[in-house]
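User: quick one - fold this with flavin mononucleotide bound?
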Amino acid sequence: MMEKTVLINCSPKQKLSVSGFLMKCAGVLIRGKKEYFHLRTPADYPAILQALKGAGKVVFVTPLYVDSIPSHMLPFMQEMEELCRGNGLRLKVYVIANNGFIEGKQNEPLMQVMENFCARSGLTWCGGIGIGGGVMLNVERIMITVMFGLMLLNVLLSAVQGGDVLDAVLSFGKSLLGLVILACGIIAFGIRLAVHINRGTDAGKKYTRIMLPSFVFIAFADIFFIIVSVLQGGIFRGWLSRFQPDAGCSIITENGK
Ligand SMILES: Cc1cc2nc3c(=O)[nH]c(=O)nc-3n(C[C@H](O)[C@H](O)[C@H](O)COP(=O)(O)O)c2cc1C
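Assistant: Sure. C-alpha coordinates for the protein plus flavin mononucleotide:
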Protein backbone atom coordinates (compact mmCIF):
# COMPACT_ATOMS: atom_id res chain seq x y z
CA MET A 1 0.00 0.00 0.00
CA MET A 2 1.28 3.49 -0.89
CA GLU A 3 2.13 5.84 1.94
CA LYS A 4 -0.04 8.90 2.43
CA THR A 5 1.48 12.23 1.32
CA VAL A 6 0.68 15.44 3.17
CA LEU A 7 1.10 18.61 1.09
CA ILE A 8 1.37 21.92 2.95
CA ASN A 9 1.00 25.32 1.30
CA CYS A 10 3.07 27.56 3.58
CA SER A 11 2.32 30.91 1.93
CA PRO A 12 0.65 33.39 4.29
CA LYS A 13 -1.40 34.69 1.35
CA GLN A 14 -5.05 33.75 1.57
CA LYS A 15 -5.44 33.33 -2.19
CA LEU A 16 -3.54 33.59 -5.47
CA SER A 17 -0.31 32.37 -3.92
CA VAL A 18 2.28 30.76 -6.16
CA SER A 19 2.80 28.10 -3.47
CA GLY A 20 -0.90 27.18 -3.55
CA PHE A 21 -0.71 26.80 -7.33
CA LEU A 22 2.49 24.71 -7.15
CA MET A 23 0.93 22.52 -4.46
CA LYS A 24 -2.06 21.77 -6.70
CA CYS A 25 0.24 20.98 -9.66
CA ALA A 26 2.36 18.66 -7.48
CA GLY A 27 -0.82 16.98 -6.23
CA VAL A 28 -1.75 16.07 -9.80
CA LEU A 29 1.57 14.25 -10.27
CA ILE A 30 1.79 12.55 -6.87
CA ARG A 31 0.15 9.14 -6.66
CA GLY A 32 -1.62 7.51 -3.72
CA LYS A 33 -3.53 9.09 -0.86
CA LYS A 34 -2.97 12.83 -0.48
CA GLU A 35 -4.08 15.47 1.98
CA TYR A 36 -3.80 19.21 1.33
CA PHE A 37 -3.36 21.91 3.97
CA HIS A 38 -2.77 25.65 4.19
CA LEU A 39 -0.48 26.73 7.02
CA ARG A 40 -1.13 30.34 8.02
CA THR A 41 -2.03 30.57 11.69
CA PRO A 42 -1.76 28.41 14.85
CA ALA A 43 -5.39 27.40 14.28
CA ASP A 44 -4.13 25.36 11.30
CA TYR A 45 -1.66 23.28 13.39
CA PRO A 46 -3.92 20.59 14.93
CA ALA A 47 -5.35 19.29 11.64
CA ILE A 48 -1.92 19.21 9.98
CA LEU A 49 -0.21 17.53 12.94
CA GLN A 50 -2.99 14.95 13.09
CA ALA A 51 -2.59 14.19 9.37
CA LEU A 52 1.18 13.84 9.75
CA LYS A 53 0.71 11.01 12.27
CA GLY A 54 -0.62 8.72 9.55
CA ALA A 55 1.59 9.92 6.71
CA GLY A 56 4.79 8.62 5.13
CA LYS A 57 5.79 11.76 3.23
CA VAL A 58 5.34 15.49 3.60
CA VAL A 59 5.82 18.16 0.93
CA PHE A 60 6.34 21.74 2.15
CA VAL A 61 5.47 24.22 -0.60
CA THR A 62 6.74 27.58 0.51
CA PRO A 63 7.78 31.07 -0.59
CA LEU A 64 11.25 32.39 0.24
CA TYR A 65 11.11 35.22 2.76
CA VAL A 66 14.28 37.19 3.51
CA ASP A 67 16.45 34.33 2.27
CA SER A 68 14.74 31.81 4.52
CA ILE A 69 11.41 30.24 5.49
CA PRO A 70 8.50 32.60 6.33
CA SER A 71 8.58 33.26 10.09
CA HIS A 72 5.07 31.87 10.68
CA MET A 73 6.43 28.40 9.81
CA LEU A 74 8.82 28.37 12.78
CA PRO A 75 6.38 27.78 15.68
CA PHE A 76 4.68 25.10 13.59
CA MET A 77 7.99 23.36 12.95
CA GLN A 78 8.75 23.40 16.68
CA GLU A 79 5.45 21.59 17.34
CA MET A 80 6.09 19.21 14.46
CA GLU A 81 9.55 18.44 15.84
CA GLU A 82 8.03 17.53 19.22
CA LEU A 83 5.38 15.37 17.58
CA CYS A 84 7.87 13.51 15.39
CA ARG A 85 10.44 12.94 18.14
CA GLY A 86 7.78 11.96 20.67
CA ASN A 87 6.11 9.45 18.35
CA GLY A 88 9.19 8.26 16.47
CA LEU A 89 7.74 9.45 13.14
CA ARG A 90 10.16 8.95 10.27
CA LEU A 91 8.52 11.05 7.59
CA LYS A 92 10.24 11.74 4.29
CA VAL A 93 10.43 15.49 3.75
CA TYR A 94 10.39 17.25 0.35
CA VAL A 95 10.38 21.00 -0.32
CA ILE A 96 9.13 23.10 -3.24
CA ALA A 97 10.31 26.66 -2.71
CA ASN A 98 9.74 29.69 -4.91
CA ASN A 99 11.18 33.18 -4.71
CA GLY A 100 10.75 36.63 -6.23
CA PHE A 101 14.25 37.16 -7.63
CA ILE A 102 15.11 35.43 -10.86
CA GLU A 103 17.66 32.89 -9.61
CA GLY A 104 16.28 29.72 -8.03
CA LYS A 105 19.60 29.21 -6.25
CA GLN A 106 18.50 31.96 -3.83
CA ASN A 107 16.49 29.20 -2.11
CA GLU A 108 19.63 27.35 -0.96
CA PRO A 109 19.62 28.78 2.62
CA LEU A 110 15.93 27.81 2.94
CA MET A 111 16.78 24.26 1.86
CA GLN A 112 19.53 24.14 4.48
CA VAL A 113 17.09 25.29 7.17
CA MET A 114 14.73 22.48 6.19
CA GLU A 115 17.55 19.93 6.08
CA ASN A 116 18.66 20.95 9.59
CA PHE A 117 15.05 20.75 10.77
CA CYS A 118 14.89 17.15 9.49
CA ALA A 119 18.17 16.21 11.20
CA ARG A 120 16.93 17.63 14.50
CA SER A 121 13.48 16.03 14.26
CA GLY A 122 14.67 12.57 13.20
CA LEU A 123 13.05 12.95 9.77
CA THR A 124 14.43 11.91 6.40
CA TRP A 125 15.50 14.86 4.26
CA CYS A 126 14.76 14.06 0.61
CA GLY A 127 15.53 17.40 -1.04
CA GLY A 128 13.39 19.41 -3.41
CA ILE A 129 13.37 22.23 -5.93
CA GLY A 130 13.94 25.99 -5.70
CA ILE A 131 12.19 28.10 -8.33
CA GLY A 132 13.38 31.58 -9.27
CA GLY A 133 11.00 34.22 -10.63
CA GLY A 134 8.12 32.29 -9.09
CA VAL A 135 5.79 35.27 -9.33
CA MET A 136 5.83 34.82 -13.12
CA LEU A 137 3.86 31.59 -12.62
CA ASN A 138 1.02 33.74 -11.34
CA VAL A 139 1.32 35.97 -14.40
CA GLU A 140 1.31 32.87 -16.62
CA ARG A 141 -1.79 31.29 -15.13
CA ILE A 142 -3.71 34.57 -15.33
CA MET A 143 -2.62 34.95 -18.97
CA ILE A 144 -3.67 31.38 -19.80
CA THR A 145 -7.12 31.95 -18.28
CA VAL A 146 -7.60 35.24 -20.18
CA MET A 147 -6.26 33.77 -23.44
CA PHE A 148 -8.51 30.73 -23.10
CA GLY A 149 -11.54 32.99 -22.59
CA LEU A 150 -10.57 35.08 -25.65
CA MET A 151 -10.11 31.92 -27.70
CA LEU A 152 -13.61 30.72 -26.80
CA LEU A 153 -15.00 34.12 -27.78
CA ASN A 154 -13.08 34.05 -31.07
CA VAL A 155 -14.28 30.52 -31.83
CA LEU A 156 -17.86 31.58 -31.15
CA LEU A 157 -17.61 34.72 -33.33
CA SER A 158 -15.88 32.79 -36.14
CA ALA A 159 -18.59 30.13 -36.02
CA VAL A 160 -21.36 32.74 -36.18
CA GLN A 161 -19.71 34.76 -38.96
CA GLY A 162 -18.59 31.70 -40.92
CA GLY A 163 -14.86 32.40 -40.33
CA ASP A 164 -12.04 29.94 -39.70
CA VAL A 165 -12.51 28.44 -36.22
CA LEU A 166 -9.14 26.67 -36.42
CA ASP A 167 -7.28 30.00 -36.63
CA ALA A 168 -8.42 31.01 -33.15
CA VAL A 169 -7.46 27.61 -31.68
CA LEU A 170 -4.04 27.64 -33.39
CA SER A 171 -3.22 31.14 -32.19
CA PHE A 172 -4.14 30.08 -28.61
CA GLY A 173 -1.95 26.97 -29.03
CA LYS A 174 1.04 29.08 -30.12
CA SER A 175 0.73 31.46 -27.16
CA LEU A 176 0.33 28.50 -24.80
CA LEU A 177 3.47 26.90 -26.19
CA GLY A 178 5.40 30.14 -25.52
CA LEU A 179 4.27 30.12 -21.88
CA VAL A 180 5.14 26.42 -21.51
CA ILE A 181 8.64 27.12 -22.87
CA LEU A 182 9.10 29.88 -20.27
CA ALA A 183 8.21 27.35 -17.56
CA CYS A 184 9.96 24.33 -19.12
CA GLY A 185 12.64 24.07 -16.39
CA ILE A 186 9.99 24.20 -13.67
CA ILE A 187 7.87 21.58 -15.45
CA ALA A 188 10.85 19.25 -16.01
CA PHE A 189 12.18 19.49 -12.45
CA GLY A 190 8.64 19.30 -11.08
CA ILE A 191 8.00 16.01 -12.89
CA ARG A 192 11.40 14.69 -11.75
CA LEU A 193 10.58 15.59 -8.14
CA ALA A 194 7.17 13.92 -8.37
CA VAL A 195 8.82 10.71 -9.63
CA HIS A 196 11.10 10.74 -6.56
CA ILE A 197 8.19 11.46 -4.23
CA ASN A 198 6.23 8.55 -5.73
CA ARG A 199 9.21 6.24 -5.28
CA GLY A 200 10.03 7.67 -1.85
CA THR A 201 13.63 8.32 -2.92
CA ASP A 202 16.07 11.19 -2.34
CA ALA A 203 15.53 13.88 -4.99
CA GLY A 204 18.58 15.99 -4.08
CA LYS A 205 18.38 19.78 -4.37
CA LYS A 206 17.68 21.25 -7.81
CA TYR A 207 17.33 24.89 -8.76
CA THR A 208 15.52 26.27 -11.76
CA ARG A 209 13.89 29.49 -12.87
CA ILE A 210 11.49 31.01 -15.29
CA MET A 211 13.28 31.00 -18.67
CA LEU A 212 13.29 34.74 -19.25
CA PRO A 213 16.60 36.55 -19.75
CA SER A 214 17.42 38.36 -16.49
CA PHE A 215 17.46 41.84 -18.08
CA VAL A 216 13.91 41.31 -19.44
CA PHE A 217 12.69 39.98 -16.08
CA ILE A 218 14.22 42.93 -14.20
CA ALA A 219 12.66 45.45 -16.61
CA PHE A 220 9.21 43.84 -16.14
CA ALA A 221 9.67 43.66 -12.35
CA ASP A 222 10.64 47.35 -12.20
CA ILE A 223 7.56 48.38 -14.21
CA PHE A 224 5.33 46.16 -12.04
CA PHE A 225 6.64 47.58 -8.76
CA ILE A 226 6.40 51.19 -9.97
CA ILE A 227 2.74 50.62 -10.91
CA VAL A 228 2.00 48.91 -7.57
CA SER A 229 3.83 51.67 -5.72
CA VAL A 230 1.82 54.39 -7.49
CA LEU A 231 -1.49 52.55 -6.96
CA GLN A 232 -0.83 51.80 -3.31
CA GLY A 233 0.82 54.93 -2.04
CA GLY A 234 1.91 57.34 -4.74
CA ILE A 235 5.29 57.67 -6.34
CA PHE A 236 8.25 58.53 -4.09
CA ARG A 237 6.22 57.52 -1.05
CA GLY A 238 8.44 57.63 1.96
CA TRP A 239 10.28 60.67 0.59
CA LEU A 240 7.31 62.95 0.07
CA SER A 241 4.76 61.30 2.34
CA ARG A 242 3.75 63.12 5.51
CA PHE A 243 3.13 59.74 7.14
CA GLN A 244 5.99 58.62 9.34
CA PRO A 245 6.18 54.81 9.58
CA ASP A 246 7.17 54.83 13.25
CA ALA A 247 4.70 57.55 14.31
CA GLY A 248 2.22 55.05 15.78
CA CYS A 249 4.82 52.70 17.29
CA SER A 250 6.16 52.77 20.78
CA ILE A 251 9.22 51.08 22.16
CA ILE A 252 8.69 48.89 25.21
CA THR A 253 11.77 48.89 27.42
CA GLU A 254 12.81 46.15 29.86
CA ASN A 255 10.94 47.73 32.78
CA GLY A 256 7.76 47.79 30.69
CA LYS A 257 7.65 51.57 30.01
C1 LIG B 1 8.30 39.61 3.41
C2 LIG B 1 8.82 39.09 2.10
C3 LIG B 1 10.15 38.71 1.96
C4 LIG B 1 10.64 38.23 0.75
N1 LIG B 1 11.97 37.88 0.65
C5 LIG B 1 12.46 37.44 -0.53
C6 LIG B 1 13.85 37.11 -0.65
O1 LIG B 1 14.63 37.19 0.28
N2 LIG B 1 14.30 36.71 -1.87
C7 LIG B 1 13.47 36.59 -2.95
O2 LIG B 1 13.94 36.21 -4.02
N3 LIG B 1 12.13 36.87 -2.85
C8 LIG B 1 11.61 37.29 -1.67
N4 LIG B 1 10.27 37.59 -1.55
C9 LIG B 1 9.38 37.37 -2.71
C10 LIG B 1 8.58 36.05 -2.57
O3 LIG B 1 9.43 34.96 -2.33
C11 LIG B 1 7.83 35.82 -3.90
O4 LIG B 1 6.94 36.89 -4.13
C12 LIG B 1 7.06 34.52 -3.93
O5 LIG B 1 6.66 34.26 -5.27
C13 LIG B 1 5.80 34.54 -3.04
O6 LIG B 1 5.23 33.25 -3.08
P1 LIG B 1 3.71 32.96 -2.61
O7 LIG B 1 2.81 33.62 -3.63
O8 LIG B 1 3.62 31.48 -2.63
O9 LIG B 1 3.54 33.54 -1.24
C14 LIG B 1 9.77 38.09 -0.37
C15 LIG B 1 8.42 38.46 -0.23
C16 LIG B 1 7.95 38.96 0.97
C17 LIG B 1 6.49 39.37 1.09
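One thing worth noting: The two ends are 60 Å apart (CA to CA).
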